[in-house]
Design goal:
By secondary structure, the protein is mainly α. The protein has one domain (about 5-120). Helices cover about 75% and strands about 0% of the residues. The chain is built from five helices and no strands. The chain is flat, with a radius of gyration of 16 Å.
């Protein structure tokens, strides 16, 4: 069982879940293949957003116990998406800076923590 009683892990998971919910909501706006998808697809995405928001709300209220077998898949998806987007953002910054790689200590710490939690929770 993962202990997220410390603020760092708790806040990171909170950010990852909010990020994932936003990405799910934005998918139809950003992707033509999804935009032309049928109502079933949109309903499924809406349901996922509601489920992620419910988990995030429980986390906010500190009523979320990470015996997360019920929520494991959503939490793992959120962490995977969050890590990938943070890493992609770092690459985009480097590319915009002509290949320079500025020290992004807070982002690096967030990625490290997210990977640690993902390994603990998702295996």
């Amino acid at each position: 069982m993962l202990d997220l009683s410390g603020d760092d892990g708790h806040q990171m998971l909170h950010r990852a879940l909010k990020h994932y919910a936003k990405r799910l909501m934005d998918l139809p706006k950003e992707n033509d293949d999804i935009k032309i998808g049928n109502d079933v697809l949109q309903h499924n995405l809406d349901t996922l957003v509601l489920e992620v928001n419910k988990i995030e709300e429980q986390l906010t209220k500190r009523t979320f116990n990470i015996t997360i077998h019920d929520a494991k898949q959503l939490v793992c998806c959120a962490l995977m998406c969050y890590i990938k987007d943070l890493e992609d953002s770092k690459e985009a910054i480097s590319k915009k800076l002509g290949g320079a790689k500025p020290e992004l200590r807070e982002v690096d710490n967030e990625i490290h923590l997210a990977k640690f939690v993902k390994n603990e929770v998702c295996g």
